[in-house]
């Protein structure tokens, strides 16, 4: 396959059992190492490998870690508690990167979308959704997705690669850059002039959802490592209660998710009958509805205070009857799940094989669930005008590159010598 040297493609859509691809630190042309996404232990090792003695390496790693993840600093020269001679030494060997921004868009409803690019040229997206009482950042875990749910645009992307921890945590850091939300001072060292500047409150970015491109549980290790940096009190310091991971139902990874990441769980259920779920969420052929719900019931943190969110996309005449709603209630009760149902009006995309259910159908569906004592809000689609709504993410670059190819073909044809 003619792929770039450090490009690792996962199995092409159609497979429900992709092979996770381990990826090293992405090599840079200038030979320096990008620290973004690395944990303190790894940074310590790298500093020791570069020549610092064990004690120095540990101290410097602690300082750099703080600047990197807590303060959002990208320049070693600005890391003021690190010795003046040490700073150029670091600069020669290391960098603190950010994902490359290809395009940033603003929706009329305040939603923002960023098209990002990996160093090996793959595009992915993140979306920021501001609300009155919260600001939610929707981040991607993969470029594309191997799972091909039939209503999801991301599932139609041809190329799939796991994002690295740096590319995942980098989204959150980039959002903080864009929103100007890094704490100004140090929390752990009481320096008076610094203390006054520190402000952890008034944040715009309060919540993170792993609901962008990709299936997070098919990129388990990288997602876990990135979320550890996000949740680390010395790092980005966001509470696990404010993070939600959405899965289409990778049953074998769910218990690990509870144990090793411990964030809130959202499950893309979308159908309550085997034939229908087999069609719209093909992973169902591998892990069926009952098996999935049993895994939800066993999810380590499932309790009334930490309910599992069940996402249900409303598809006209497919999964939206009153009987479907009653069956959903029956299943949730059968497994005694502390549940909340999120009804998502289907967001159309060009060529999609479905239509959204009518508003009164959605209302009726919601009422049946609600009357059974389960909350079932209907999600308002956000950022539709910039293709930022659920399931619409499919990089503009992919679309552009096809247009580009066509243009190139036309130019070539036009410039071909006559005869
Ligand atoms: N792969 C994960 C997370 C990303 S998808 C998962 O499937 O859970 C985030 C949510 O958007 C999922 O519930 C997904 O089913 C839903 N979704 C996908 N395409 C959609 C569309 N066209 N309209 C509405 N919701 C969609
Ligand atoms: Fe992948 Fe989720 Fe889209 Fe299904 S809904 S194709 S699992 S991103």
Can you walk through the features of this model?
The chain is of the alpha/beta class. It folds into two domains: 33-95, DNA polymerase, domain 1, CATH 1.10.150.530; 100-415, TIM Barrel (Alpha-Beta Barrel). 33% of the residues lie in helices and 15% in strands. The protein is built from twelve helices and 13 strands. Strands 3-4-5-6-9-10-11-12-13 form a nine-stranded mixed β-sheet, with helices on both faces. A two-stranded parallel ribbon has the order 1-2. A two-stranded antiparallel ribbon has the order 7-8. A hairpin with a 5-residue loop joins strand 3 (100-106) and strand 4 (112-117). The two termini are 35 Å apart. Mean pLDDT is 86; it is low at 1-6, 12-17 and 186-201. It binds S-adenosyl-L-homocysteine and iron/sulfur cluster. S-adenosyl-L-homocysteine is lined by residues 145, 149, 151-152, 211, 215, 246-248, 268, 311, 313, 344, 346-347, 390-391. Residues 145, 147-149, 152, 154-155, 214-215, 248, 268 line the site of iron/sulfur cluster (SF4).
């Amino acid at each position: 396959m003619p792929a770039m040297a450090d490009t690792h493609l996962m199995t092409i859509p159609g497979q429900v059992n992709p092979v996770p691809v381990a990826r090293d630190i992405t090599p840079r042309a200038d030979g320096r190492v990008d620290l973004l996404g690395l944990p303190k232990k790894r940074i310590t090792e790298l500093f020791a490998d570069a020549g610092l003695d064990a004690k120095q390496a540990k101290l410097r790693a602690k300082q750099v870690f703080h600047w990197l993840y807590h303060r959002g600093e990208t320049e070693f020269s600005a890391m003021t508690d690190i010795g003046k001679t040490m700073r150029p030494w670091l600069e020669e060997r290391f960098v603190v990167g950010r994902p490359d921004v290809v395009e940033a868009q603003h929706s009329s409803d305040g939603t923002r979308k960023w098209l990002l690019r990996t160093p090996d040229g793959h595009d992915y997206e993140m979306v920021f959704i501001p609300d009155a009482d919260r600001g939610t950042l929707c981040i991607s875990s993969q470029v594309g997705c191997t799972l091909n749910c039939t209503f999801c645009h991301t599932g139609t992307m041809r190329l799939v690669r796991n994002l690295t921890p740096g590319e995942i945590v980098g989204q959150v850091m980039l959002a903080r850059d864009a929103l100007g939300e890094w704490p100004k001072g140090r929390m752990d060292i009481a320096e008076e002039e610094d203390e006054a500047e520190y402000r952890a409150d008034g944040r715009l970015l309060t919540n993170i959802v792993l609901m962008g491109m990709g299936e997070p549980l098919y990129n388990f290790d990288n997602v876990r490592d990135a979320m550890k940096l996000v949740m680390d009190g010395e790092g980005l310091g966001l509470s696990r209660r404010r993070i939600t991971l959405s899965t289409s139902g990778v049953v074998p990874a769910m218990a690990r998710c509870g144990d090793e990441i411990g964030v809130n769980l959202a499950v893309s259920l979308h159908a309550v009958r085997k034939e229908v779920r087999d069609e719209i969420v093909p992973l169902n052929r591998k892990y069926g509805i009952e098996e999935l719900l049993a895994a939800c019931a066993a999810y380590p943190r499932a309790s009334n205070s930490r309910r599992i969110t069940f996402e249900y996309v409303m598809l006209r005449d497919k999964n939206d009857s009153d009987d479907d709603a009653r069956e959903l209630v029956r299943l949730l009760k059968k497994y005694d799940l502390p549940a909340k149902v999120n009804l998502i009006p289907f967001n159309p995309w060009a060529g999609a094989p479905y239509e959204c259910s009518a508003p009164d159908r959605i209302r009726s569906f919601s009422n049946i669930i609600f009357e059974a004592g389960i909350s079932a809000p209907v999600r308002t689609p956000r950022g539709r005008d910039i293709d930022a709504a659920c399931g619409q993410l499919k990089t503009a670059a992919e679309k552009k590159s096809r247009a580009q190819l066509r243009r190139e073909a036309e130019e070539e044809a036009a410039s071909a010598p006559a005869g």
